[in-house]
Amino acid sequence: MLTRIMQTNEESLELARDIIQAGGLVAFPTETVYGLGANALDEQACRKIFEVKGRPSDNPLIVHVHRDYDISSLVTDIPEYAVRLREAYLPGPLTMVFRSLGTVCPAVSCGLDTVAIRVPSHPKAQEFLKYVKLPIAAPSANISKHVSPTSAEHVLADFNGLIPLILDGGECTGGIESTVLDCTGEIPVVLRSGLVTREMIAEIAGDCKTHTPVAGEKVRSPGMKYSHYSPRCRTALYAEKDLDAAVSRYDAEEAKGAAVSFICLDSEARKVGQRKCLNIGMTAEEGARNLYRMLREGERELDMIIGIAPAGRDGVMAGLMNRFEKACGGVYEEKD
Asked: What pLDDT score was predicted for residue 301?
């Protein structure tokens, strides 16, 4: 199969619509990362997403719709706080989980009675969604567990020859996946942290909790259970307070001849001397924007990437911390 990267215009949108209507897959840009889309009403098309990505069959998909789409055709029991949140933050990097009407095909929800709805703000995503006139199920457009894509070239690197079309919308400005919010209860619950923070949600909804995973529970949202976002090289993760141990690890790896680099925010990068460092920026927002791009750059030439996790846990830092954990090993390597 020939995989084409095309600028998002009338010609490419017509092709994208034809592919989607025929049960095929199209990669498209959002403000967070690129998505791999299929008709959310077509069971066989959605199953192709799982097959092409190598995605676990119990990891549900997010349904993307344009800003004027009537989601009442897909979901029920929309709480009043969700209406306020939609007015405040959508289109934008917020996914809301509601009770499903059963309109979308079973593969989307993986046996759950809920469905996750997203209204991306990227103008090219909006053009695509309005042109196809269908709800589009789409996880991130990367091979499962690999680093998420923030450019059309990243998508091509993972799916060349596997999908027919990538709509090019330039570099994603958000950089980490959307916040996923459970809106099925009286109080909204963050299932996956992102750029719309728990604090921002609480300000509109009056309160907001954060989900605490329980062993053996069903995956209720993308990004909750499986390792994700991992570069194709060895990784390690250290807490910011264990910088000395991280430096020792770096020096030991380099002494063995490994090509090694840190990845961290500027505040930690300035503390590691002349050692190689993938500096992702000064703020949590800059870090989110740059993390995946630099992980992909690093994996091409490095044997090992050592993450130094940001110290904060509030706001956007919560989402950035989540990606550090999943990308660089899932657990800290700390001193007693």
From this structure: 95
Q: How far apart are CA 32 and CA 213, in angstroms?
A: 24
d(C-alpha 30, C-alpha 58), whole Å = 24
Residue spans of beta strands (DSSP E) within the chain:
4-7, 26-28, 35-39, 62-64, 75-76, 94-100, 114-118, 136-137, 165-168, 179-182, 189-192, 209-210, 234-238, 260-264, 277-279, 304-308
Mean pLDDT calculated for residue range 42-46: 97
Judge contact between 98 and 115, C-beta under 8 A.
Answer: yes
Instruction: Quick: pLDDT tens for 231-245.
Output: 999 999 999 899 999
User: Looking at 14-18, 57-61, 164-168, 185-189, which range is the least confident one?
Assistant: 57-61
Question: For the chain, first and last CA: distance in Å?
Answer: 53
Token code pair at residue 148: 């998420």
Residue listed under structure tokens 């199969």: 1
Partners of 86 in beta bridges: none
Helices 152-159 and 284-299: crossing angle in degrees, nearest 10, is: 40
pLDDT of the residue at 212: 81
DSSP 8-state assignment for residue 313: -
The answer to whether 74 and 104 have CB atoms below 8 angstroms apart is: yes
pLDDT for 245-288, tens place per residue?
999 999 999 999 999 999 999 999 999 999 999 999 999 999 99
Burial class (CB in 10 A: 0-12, 13-18, 19+), 308: buried
Neighbours of 133 (CB within 10 A): 11
